[in-house]
Automatic annotation (TrEMBL):
<feature type="domain" description="Metalloprotease TldD/E N-terminal">
    <location>
        <begin position="27"/>
        <end position="90"/>
    </location>
</feature>
<feature type="domain" description="Metalloprotease TldD/E central">
    <location>
        <begin position="121"/>
        <end position="224"/>
    </location>
</feature>
<dbReference type="InterPro" id="IPR047657">
    <property type="entry name" value="PmbA"/>
</dbReference>
<dbReference type="InterPro" id="IPR002510">
    <property type="entry name" value="Metalloprtase-TldD/E_N"/>
</dbReference>
<feature type="domain" description="Metalloprotease TldD/E C-terminal">
    <location>
        <begin position="231"/>
        <end position="446"/>
    </location>
</feature>
<dbReference type="Pfam" id="PF19290">
    <property type="entry name" value="PmbA_TldD_2nd"/>
</dbReference>
<feature type="region of interest" description="Disordered">
    <location>
        <begin position="135"/>
        <end position="154"/>
    </location>
</feature>
<dbReference type="InterPro" id="IPR045570">
    <property type="entry name" value="Metalloprtase-TldD/E_cen_dom"/>
</dbReference>
<dbReference type="Pfam" id="PF19289">
    <property type="entry name" value="PmbA_TldD_3rd"/>
</dbReference>
<protein>
    <submittedName>
        <fullName>TldD/PmbA family protein</fullName>
    </submittedName>
</protein>
<dbReference type="InterPro" id="IPR036059">
    <property type="entry name" value="TldD/PmbA_sf"/>
</dbReference>
<dbReference type="InterPro" id="IPR045569">
    <property type="entry name" value="Metalloprtase-TldD/E_C"/>
</dbReference>
<dbReference type="InterPro" id="IPR035068">
    <property type="entry name" value="TldD/PmbA_N"/>
</dbReference>
<dbReference type="Pfam" id="PF01523">
    <property type="entry name" value="PmbA_TldD_1st"/>
</dbReference>
<comment type="similarity">
    <text>Belongs to the peptidase U62 family.</text>
</comment>
Amino acid sequence: MLSEPEAADLAVALVEAARTAGASAADAMIGISRSSGISVRLGELEDIDHSESFEVSLRAFNGDRSATVSSASLDRAGFAELAERAIAMARQAPEDPYAGLADPTLLGSGDPVDLGLFDPTVAPLTELEQRARTAEQAARAVPGVSNSNGASASSGQSLVALATSTGFSRAVRSSHFGCSASVIAGDAGGLQRDYASHSTRFLEDLDAAEDIGRKAGERAVARLNPARPASGACPVIFDPRVSSSLLGHFVAAITGSAIARKTSFLQDALGTQLFGPGIIIRDDPLRQRGLRSRATDGEGLPCRPLDLVADGVLTTWLATTADARQLGIQPTGHASRSVGGSPGAGPSNLMLMPGAKSREELLASVPRAILVTELIGQGVNPVTGDYSRGAAGFLVEGGEIGAAVAEITIAGNLKQMFATLEPASDLELRRGIDAPTLLIPEMTVASA
């Protein structure tokens, strides 16, 4: 794999080729990745995967027109042809008065911040296989588990470089490790499936395979013999496994593109009390070893921690340079992009900060509730905020988690849900988007 300076130099060379071909502006990305994975099922090796990928992407501008082309070759000899093709396409593209690179005065500069994204540890296939086997064995050892969907272990490294014709160039190397298990509990009279997984930047941070497997087995067994609660209004508690999905809906509604197109139910919410007092939703791109950490965004702008919601008040949109121009604001440093794509706004490490009550206190704060541990479907209207999704989980009575429930639908409106939700104190930073246990005091619950 190339070094960071070599990858950055390649991106700069591609930008120079675009300017030579007549581009008024350009940016280029280089992406290199290498990954290995092994899966087992019922004690037998099921799949071995090893992949290496190389991608070069050039976005060339001809005034207000632009086009993006990609290639799988890192050979500089082909850059001139790639640039010519990009310029030819850009000349035929429709005009976009908001398109363009970020203001050069806003770009990140100086030495890149070390966010601890790269672990040089190389996990051999034998080690990955043993990790997967251990996870499945632990899952199948849980009494009540009757079958397996398999277990897997993976590791990989990637290198991404970005360069712009306005003088920015930087490359970042990162690593990832993962392990998962999925099993089935019960018999033909009633089967239930569940899983557990974990992903990290550093191998030493990865949960033990035994713990992952045991958690998958225990989750599947706990779901056996589900009941169907009576339909009606009921408090709903979102387990941390699914509570972060509410942040996903929130983020989608505050992206600059949704606001500019007037397709968001939060269109007029900026500066208003959207959540209850004390609620903080923080985006922290500089977290050490974070799965979404980054010192600069997909346009080269510096990233900084930011409270998107402070004391319940919505403080900002998430805007790329193009979004910002359309909305008449400054870009927020939230541009995100794949190697072959254009920038789009998105968070880094997003979290809803913990509340004062423990999970146990939150469960006991209502006489009866539904604890949701799985969500099904995508029933959310981004324009109105209406929310309706299939769900499964457990009955909670008197603060105690009881019988499993399945085949239910929970419904409400996200604005009302945001305004009334209460977080527990059990926040764990395990994903790119994290939230603690969340209580919604009233939603509509319907049994299938």
